[in-house]
Amino acid sequence: KAGVTQTPRYLIKTRGQQVTLSCSPISGHRSVSWYQQTPGQGLQFLFEYFSETQRNKGNFPGRFSGRQFSNSRSEMNVSTLELGDSALYLCASSWDRTYEQYFGPGTRLTVT
Amino acid sequence: GESVGLHLPTLSVQEGDNSIINCAYSNSASDYFIWYKQESGKGPQFIIDIRSNMDKRQGQRVTVLLNKTVKHLSLQIAATQPGDSAVYFCAESNFGNEKLTFGTGTRLTIIP
Predict the structure, then answer these.
(1) Which residues of A touch B104 (CB under 8 A)?
(2) ∠B86-A95-B103 over CA atoms, to 5°?
């Protein structure tokens, strides 16, 4: 069974731009969660989607948004990028509230 | 607020020895705990989990211990191997909530 895939793997953007990251969950998984990982803050929860609905949201500004499609694929968007948005963005999928979340390799975003 | 922390940021262990990684959590309402392993350039990989109605759970070469009285979690790795070198994170959650709150991580280095 294929794992969680994320595209692109690496991205370089400049301040003020916006970016869209993509996540394809494991086949059959309907829940997709997004996390931001930085050396200073560690792994922090962004939001979680299930059946195209956001079920849970972390403490991030409104510049961070996401969505989920009918095939469970998910995208997250960050608008008006700031230097502090440089991070590894991780996507995780699970069947449904079964706790065992499987993570993708992440997208490394660098904002210059 | 919720927080999950680790006692030691780094740990070096001789190959073949057992290792113990500790984690403290502050949210007494948490009822589900997970250990993840993250290797360089990869997303976190699920190792083992435990629910609050248990105090011990064993997997292949790994054991998780939960002490709810002092809100402490530990991961024991038996007969460590070079491939065990990674950063280990504990995470906690509540039943029915996909949001994981991660600890800061412990870097485990296996000395050949």
Answers:
(1) 42
(2) 35
- Separation CA B69–CA A52 (nearest Å): 39
Contact A7, A74 (CB under 8 A): no
Q: Is B1 touching A (CB cutoff 8 A)?
A: no
- 8 Å CB contact between A99 and B51: no
Residues 6+ apart with CB under 8 A from B58: none
**Shortest CA distance to A19 belongs to which of A101, A89, A96, A70?**
A89
**In the numeric block, which tokens belong to residue A73?**
């694929």
Q: Which residues 27-56 on chain A approach chain B with CB closer than 8 angstroms?
A: 31, 33, 35, 42-45, 48, 50, 55-56
**Number of other CB atoms surrounding residue B16 within 10 Å:** 12
Per residue in B30-80, pLDDT tens?
Answer: 999 999 999 988 999 999 999 999 999 999 999 999 999 999 999 999 999
With H, G, I as helix, E, B as strand and everything else as coil, classify residue B86: strand
Confidence of residue A2 (pLDDT cuts 50, 70, 90): confident
